[in-house]
Structures are given as structure tokens and as C-alpha cells.
Amino acid sequence: MAAGEFDLIATYFTHRYPTRGDVDTGVGDDGAVLQVPANSELVVVTDTLVEGVHFDHYTPARAIGHKAVAVNLSDLAAMGAEPAWISLALTLPTFDDEWLTGFANGLREICDYYQCQLIGGDTTRGPLTITVTAHGFVPTGKALRRSGAKPGDWIYVSGALGDAGLALAGMQQRQKITPDYQRRLNERLFFPAPRVALGQSLRGIASSAIDVSDGLLADLRHILTASQVGARIDVDELPLSLALTESLSEADAFRYALTSGEDFELLFTVPEAQRGVFDTVIAHAAQKPVCIGRVTNDAGAIQLLYAGEPWSFPADAAYGFDHFQQPTAESET
């Protein structure tokens, strides 16, 4: 059992993590010394998970370790970047060997899968808070941004929406869900899969991109604001899981898909001139992105259609999570 801060670091975060040849100095010194590849730009992202806001005390420690990294890799994916390194700032209320073992295992497993090396960070005592900073590379001038969408571009999403939100609703008994579906949905909520490979394949093809963390409509608005365009969304084209459609009415399924967050799919736009190239790139993908609409000239406006006709959506539910409008929320969903 670790006796202090440095023992804790050595026991849980120094060994058994992947190592990379571009790390000259990692964990154990005052700072990391790293090599950035030639003709590449460095992409840096940071996310914080706070107990009582992003997860509760029932959330498995392994899931928290996984998700702390996954949410950052999802941001890198939205920029078209290749993950390389992470740093971890961990604030703990007390020493708990069982929790730390589970957390470190979840962190290590996803780092192993994506070949990210833990290069440093900090440990402190206080309310349970996890902050991860992830670093990745993108060829010079090839980073995806939110600001490139143009009228006429096609809008795509990489996979099913609303599952994480429904998982939380089921756990909080706000929705009745079968045990089998609840287990499947919990996997989406607790162990999201960042679309890293897809993000890299979109370089030079997508005109804009973002990951769906706060809800489709909320995150789409970021693209529309940055690009000064509008959007038309065909709600009947939204990709929905069987767990969602068999647990909810059609209208509620659309509501979850449009407004609940933490699915960490990619939302992106593709110009008409690039659609052939894009179709070739995704031809053999196990999970193909779905076209859900088109970019319009009406700056800032989102038009929702069902079977080509205007679809009514409650105004008070048309936005995703906001930390300062919903400060007591128990999840970012």
C-alpha cells in the first residue's frame, strides 16, 4: 500500500504504461522532454472530470480512468490528430487502494490501445477531480477545425446518438429500460470509444469537425457559429441504436439523440466535391458515418425536418449540457 504522494505515483502511474521513442524524459522528473515530429503541428487538449458533476460514487473506478483519457482523445480525433502523450492531475479525498487500482487499470488499458504515454502530472488531496491533458500530432496545415463549413456541405455523424443520455436516465430511474439494454447503454456511457482513426482519415476531406460531448444540437451550434452558416437536420436520418428505439417513443428517441451528450461521436461536414473521396475512404469501415443533413446559408439557424416536413422541437430542450446553466447536474449528459 502506498504511504505517500511519491509512493502513490510510483505504485500506480510509473510502471506498465506504454512507452514511446519520442519521449526523452517522462514521469519522475520536473518536466517531460518530448520530440515533436518534423512537418507536424502539436495539438493540445484538456478535460476535467469532477465527482458529482461528471460521475457519481457508483461509477466504477476503471470506467473513470478510461473516460478521463477517452474524452481527450475524442477532442484530438475531432482535430484529425494522432494521440501521443497524456499528463494527469489527480486530486483525491483519501487514499483508497482498490479505487486507485481500478482507476489506473482503466487509464492504462486505453493508453495501451491508442499508444499514449503518460508523461507526468500532479497528485493532490481534495475533492475527487481528474484532469487529463492529451497531446497529439497533425501534419502541418491539416488540422480539422470548426470554422470551415460552407453552404451546401453535407453533415455527417460517425455513429449512434443518445445512448449515453439514456444510460444515465435508466440508472436514475427516469426511464424504464430492460436489464440487457441497460448493460449495453452503460458501456457507451462508461467506456466511450473515441473515433481516432476516422478523425485522421478526414484530413483534407472534411471542411469542419467537432466531437459530440454536450449534445448534437449544442455541438452543431459551435460549428455554425465558427463557420457563420446554418444547418438543416433530417431527424429521421439520425443513427439510433436498438436499445434507444425499443426503449422510447420515436419523439423521445429523437430528443435524446439531439440533446443528450457524452456519446463522443464525430460530427463533421463534407463538401460535395469531396463526397466521392469520402465514400472511398469509408468503404470498408466497420461503422460507417451517416449523413443527417446539409449546411445552409441561414447563419446560426437549425431547421429540423421529418420526412421533408418541418419537425417541432421544444425550445427549452434544444440545447445540451452547460456547466454554468446547470451547475447541479450529476453528469455531463
Automatic annotation (TrEMBL):
Mg(2+) 5 binds at D214. Its EC number is 2.7.4.16. Residues 28-138 form the PurM-like N-terminal domain. It catalyses: thiamine phosphate + ATP = thiamine diphosphate + ADP. It is an enzyme of class 2 (transferase). Mg(2+) 1 binds at T46, D47, D122. Mg(2+) 3 binds at D30, D75, D211. GO terms for molecular function: ATP binding; magnesium ion binding; thiamine-phosphate kinase activity. ATP binds at G121, D122, R146, S213. Mg(2+) 4 binds at D30, D75. Belongs to the thiamine-monophosphate kinase family. Catalyzes the ATP-dependent phosphorylation of thiamine-monophosphate (TMP) to form thiamine-pyrophosphate (TPP), the active form of vitamin B1. This is Thiamine-monophosphate kinase. It comes from Pseudidiomarina indica.
